């Protein structure tokens, strides 16, 4: 049986494409006793509320029709955000040369958070340019990588 996120992605992709969007990620998580199906979309030039609505309404109808999820849940369709989490190899490839924040499970050099330029991604290992040197964090040590935004 396919995972909820895989089924939701398969249903969402053509709807997103019809509206000039792509699916960045899909999450199915339980928070404070409520299940959430979150679909993160992307659009060249940015995502606005109209894009979210254009994907959300038909996706909700399609999910009701196919009914792949037992019980109740809340559907959320939103932008992946400017500080989006990088999860897939294609995400990393798209943002080579961009500034990222790497969050680790255990401290390295006394810190769990490291900000630098994404240099490479290889099988889950992340190489970041930090203070003039390249540092590679192994997949097993990396909790999360997201784009870093400076204000």
Automatic annotation (TrEMBL):
Gene Ontology CC: cytosol
GO biological process, one term: translation
Entry superkingdom: Bacteria
Residues of the Ribosome maturation factor RimP C-terminal domain: 86-151
Alphabetic keyword roster: Cytoplasm, Ribosome biogenesis
Location of the protein in the cell: Cytoplasm
Alphabetical list of InterPro entries matching this protein: Ribosome_maturation_RimP, RimP_C, RimP_C_sf, RimP_N, RimP_N_sf
Entry annotated with the keyword Zinc-finger: no
Domain Ribosome maturation factor RimP N-terminal: 12-83
Main location: cytoplasm
Family under the similarity heading: Belongs to the RimP family.
PANTHER family xref list: RIBOSOME MATURATION FACTOR RIMP (PTHR33867)
Function: Required for maturation of 30S ribosomal subunits.
The protein, known as: Ribosome maturation factor RimP
Organism: Lawsonibacter faecis
Lineage: Bacteria, Bacillati, Bacillota, Clostridia, Eubacteriales
Gene: rimP
């Amino acid at each position: 049986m396919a995972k909820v996120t895989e089924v939701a992605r398969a249903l969402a992709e053509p709807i997103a494409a019809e509206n000039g969007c792509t699916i960045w990620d899909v999450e199915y998580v339980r928070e404070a006793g409520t299940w959430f199906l979150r679909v993160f979309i992307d659009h060249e030039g940015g995502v606005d509320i109209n894009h979210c609505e254009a994907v959300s309404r038909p996706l909700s109808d399609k999910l009701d029709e196919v009914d792949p999820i037992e019980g109740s849940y809340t559907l959320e369709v939103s932008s992946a955000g400017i500080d989006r989490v990088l999860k897939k190899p294609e995400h990393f490839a798209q943002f080579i040369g961009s500034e990222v924040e790497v969050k680790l499970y255990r401290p390295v050099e006394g810190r769990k958070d490291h900000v630098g330029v994404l240099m490479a991604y290889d099988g889950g290992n992340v190489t970041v340019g930090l203070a003039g040197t390249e540092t590679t964090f192994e997949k097993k040590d990396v909790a999360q990588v997201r784009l870093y935004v400076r204000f």
